[in-house]
Amino acid sequence: MEKKKIGLLFELFFTFFKLGAFTFGGGYAMLPLMQREIVEKHSWLKDDEILDILAVSQSTPGPLAVNMATFVGYKTAGFSGSFFATLGLVIPSFVVILLISTVLTHFQDYKVVKYAFNGIRAGVLALITKSFFTMAKQCPKEIFSYLVLAVSFAVSVIWGANALVIIASCAVVGLVFSIIQRKRGKAQ
Amino acid sequence: MIYLELFWTFFKIGVFTFGGGYAMLPLIQSEVLSKGWLTSQELINFIAVSESTPGAFAINIATYIGSQTGGIFGSFCATAGVVLPSFIIILIVAKFFEKFKKSKTIEGMMNGLRPCAVGLIGAAVISLGKEVFFSKGFTFSLFKDYFFLCTLAIFALSLFLAFFKIKKKKIHPILIIVISAVLGIATGYINELI
Hints:
The complex is a heterodimer. Chain A is built from seven helices and one strand, in the order H-H-H-E-H-H-H-H. In chain A, helix 6 (143-159) runs antiparallel to helix 7. Chain A folds into three domains: 1-106; 108-138; 140-188, no CATH class. Helix content of chain A is 86%, strand content 1%. Chain A is mainly α. In chain B, strand 2 (165-166) and strand 3 form a beta hairpin. Chain B is mainly α. The longest helix of chain B has 39 residues, at 57-95. Chain B has two domains: 1-135, no CATH class; 136-194, no CATH class. In chain B, strands 2-3 form a two-stranded antiparallel sheet. Chain B contains eight helices and three strands. At the A-B interface, helix 1, helix 2, helix 3, strand 1 and helix 4 of A face helix 1, strand 1, helix 2, helix 3 and helix 4 of B.
């Protein structure tokens, strides 16, 4: 391998290592820093390319952060680029959580930690509730999407249906609906 | 074998997660809690830990559950499992990028997937809420219970803070977690005093 390519791979690894180590909360939180590092500092990609990558990462399976790391790595340096970018992203989380998971089980029995987590659970529930409302606001404002939202909610809450099954069915329903809509559009 | 099971479980979760943030939560609930690898309470505790440590929730939770069930190698298998589907799919998509962008099939599926993700997060709020407020079951005497009322107050305050903006800037989730931790500790020790 040429020296230049090895240098590029190292830079990709290091850039995503930084993104993994200094952003809290994953994918969306990563965007501003990623834009600065990749567009402004290294000029690996242009602004509109980042937006394209974001759009595609949202409509492919998998966690957003991993999708974007793989994609940017591939666009910049091919397969080995995607490998090193993703590895760089994963390693900080992996190491930090491994350390914490040993500490956490150790501390969980302390009274003060138990009390703290009693409060924290209520706080986390509030954060997830907030995220639900934010996501609901971003949903397309059509009867069809409200219907899908309501049915997947109800099926999960009332029957405790498996999330995998609900997600797969919604993908099929969405596809069928869009085909019907298109046919109707053509007929008119 | 536990390693293979960890890998496969998180591989499935990786394939069916769309989007970032809490999108993975409903899948963790139906795939992981049922196996007894984690309790609901532990899951909520860990969400707080994950919010306050760097990195994506997906990688954090995979590493954590992996290490709790199968040590270091377990966490490696779970993390590899959750990352691999993304990695493979994005490599394929990147090759056919222009086609993918204009694909009517993908667009159609997203019509169903987007609202579905929202509905499932809503369902997760309900089931985690049950765990937070009614972990000992529901009775009307709860409304006189000291801990229940304090938890309710902390939840209400946190929700207010989560929506609140100072000069158009949101309050950081970590700050909300810290505040709720302090209030939780205060609640516990005040209860001991009275």
